[in-house]
Design brief:
- The structure is a single chain.
- 70% of the residues lie in helices and 0% in strands.
- With 81 residues, the chain is mainly α.
Length: 81
């Protein structure tokens, strides 16, 4: 089975980039009497969520496997020790 072409991958990446740009684009709001600081953390969090969406489930899976291995080693040390 042949690999995907670089052109197909580039199209996919460009499509994702356009989608992210559309989500992050905001129209300027009319000025109000109170001056408020722009909330930059929400856009940073959104970018991190998109880039690292599989990180938390993967870390959870690694933690479960590590805990199972440590538990198995402790049980074996009591049985064989």
């Amino acid at each position: 089975m042949p690999k995907k072409s670089h052109r197909t991958k580039a199209k996919h990446r460009a499509k994702l980039a356009r989608k992210i740009q559309k989500e992050n684009f905001q129209l300027p709001k009319p000025a109000t009497t109170q001056s408020q600081l722009p909330n930059k953390t929400s856009s940073v969090n959104r970018k991190l969520d998109v880039r690292h969406q599989y990180l938390i489930p993967e870390l959870r899976r690694i933690g479960i496997l590590a805990g199972a291995m440590i538990t198995t080693l402790i049980v074996l040390s009591f049985i064989l020790g």
